[in-house]
Prior knowledge:
The structure holds two protein chains of two kinds.
Chain A: E1 2-12, E2 18-25, E3 28-29, E4 34-38, H1 45-52, E5 60-65, E6 68-69, H2 75-84, E7 86-89, H3 101-111, H4 116-129, H5 145-157, E8 163-167, H6 175-192, E9 195-200, H7 203-207, E10 211-216, E11 219-221
Parallel strand pairs in A: 4-9, 4-10, 7-8, 8-9
Antiparallel strand pairs in A: 1-2, 1-3, 1-5, 5-6, 10-11
Chain B: H1 2-15, H2 17-55, E1 60-64, E2 66-68, E3 71-73, H3 77-83, E4 89-100, E5 105-111, H4 114-119, E6 123-126, E7 135-138, H5 140-150, E8 157-165, E9 171-184, E10 194-198, H6 199-206, E11 213-217, H7 224-233, E12 237-239, H8 241-263, H9 265-284, H10 286-294, H11 299-344, H12 357-383, H13 387-392
Parallel strand pairs in B: 5-10, 7-9
Antiparallel strand pairs in B: 1-11, 1-12, 2-3, 4-5, 4-8, 4-11, 6-9, 7-10, 8-9
Helix pairs in contact in B: 1-11, 2-8, 2-9, 2-11, 2-12, 9-12, 11-12
Amino acid sequence: MIETSGLSKYYTFGSGGRITALNDVSITISGGEFVSIVGPSGSGKSTLLNIIGCLDQPSTGDIYLDNARLDYGNAASLVQLRRHTIGFVFQAFNLISSMNAMENVAYPMYFNRVPKPQREKRSLELLESMGLGERALHLPSELSGGEQQRVAIARALVNNPRIILADEPTGNIDSKNGKKIIELMKQVNRDQGITFLVVTHDMKMAENASRVIKMVDGEIVD
Amino acid sequence: MLIEDFSMAFRQLRMKKARTFLILLGISIGVAAVVGVASLGEGIRVNAVEEIQRSHDLTLIEVSPGLSSGNLVLITEAKVDAIKDYGVAVSPYVSDAYVTTNKTYFEVIGISQDYLDVKGLEIDTGAVFEDGTRQMVLGSDIGEKFEKIEGAGIGDVIEAQYRSYGEDGRSVDKDTNFGLVGVLKPTGTDADDRVFIDINTALELDEKDVYDGITVKVDRSDQATAARAAIERLGLSCYSAQDEIDSVNKIMNGVTLVLAFFSGISLIVGGLMIINTMVVSVYERTREIGIAKATGASEFDVIRMFLSECIIIGIVGGILGDVLGILFSLMIDGVGKPILVAKLGISNFEHLTAINIEILVAGFLVSLIISVISGIYPAWRAAKLDPVRALRQL
């Protein structure tokens, strides 16, 4: 489903210096897998995630989604992937503070040109399935960290993606709620067959994964 | 979709009430300045045109000999007949200068009786001349002059000379005399300075076989343009009050445009305010833009988000500006009119300013266009934000 081949990412500076964030990363992830990427900070986990999520471009190497090579020169096709195939969950939740929970969940459907009544219906269903039905009209500032992350997961699911990319999803949440979030993601992975690629430094989370990829200094280590 | 774009944009603007209010104020003051100044120009134009319409009969066309491919086209009897179809009254005349023995110069117009009706001239004292005689009727001003200088009143005979030029270029003076039979009511036009006699007498005295001009009256003023065009096709020249109205319109439109342009400079300030505020807004919403892009917004979606806000600012600013502009215009009228009346004694106008729908629509469009243009750069900046960096910003 996801295949990276020789993926590298460098950052060059005006002074001629160069930082290697990713070095020759080649991984293959099958559909329906729940994969954890672990490693110390600065090991290139998030960079890998952002590149797979079409938010960033590799310096060299290719990514294949369903055997089709991603064309980074074609912005429209990347937008389509972000709209229909990929969902994001962030460490800092990244909810829009002026929108209530339901509006935040519905937000990606807005760019998919889904009519408002359908958007509201779908987001309410998702929030209810996550036990947040009664919090639908609350602003993010009125929700706990765990609740905010569940809203963010609902948002990631709203367009029925096939891949969810999560960057430290439990990083800003206490361990009890973090566990709930992991359970929720596992459940979605099991029930809906959505592929999860989760960046974490939380070993408990990693233990729940069907596969763990370890990274150090931009490289994959076994 | 479009309605939702605007409702989202409206929400954004409402969240920053004070800032939005200040931008709107900036734009609408600019629009108000343009509308107010344009209304002053329009007011002056309207007053000038109304003045022309008051003092001129717009159903009258004055026809004079014309030039057609270098040849003089004279007003012959045939031309008069040809023109008869174009007006309800077609009255030819001849015109010449005479001088009395006391050296009072006067212009004699040889006319047929219907000319008086066409021109709306009425007898004040005495009677109209009889056809085929050397009787004359005086305009009110020349009547007074004759009374003072010549001591002549109704019933008197006035000796006068008509000066023509022979083939050798020498002047030939011919003596003649006219019997004063009537004086006209004052009209405020140049008819007050003229002397009217029977046209056949005039042709005979002046030894002419063509006319110097024709006064054509059409039924309604809106027929004048067509009639005029038809007469001009015969090779003759025409003049009507519409010529003056046209030139007033031309001058005042130019003046208004220049004035509005300079007062519109304040709109540039309004535009810069929008650019500044929107750039700040892009900076503040960097994270939100990152979220939007990560969840599927294209660059165009982001541009649309910001431009929708600018369109709302443009629409509301335009409407507010028009309202303020109307108030500004009323203020100019309220303050300026008494000054004109007191200092210059000009009082034959109702309002100093005039507002029409074109001015308001122009004010509105200027606001909309400036707002959208000002939004392009910030929107472009937002669209080009790198989502990874945008999301990293806390």
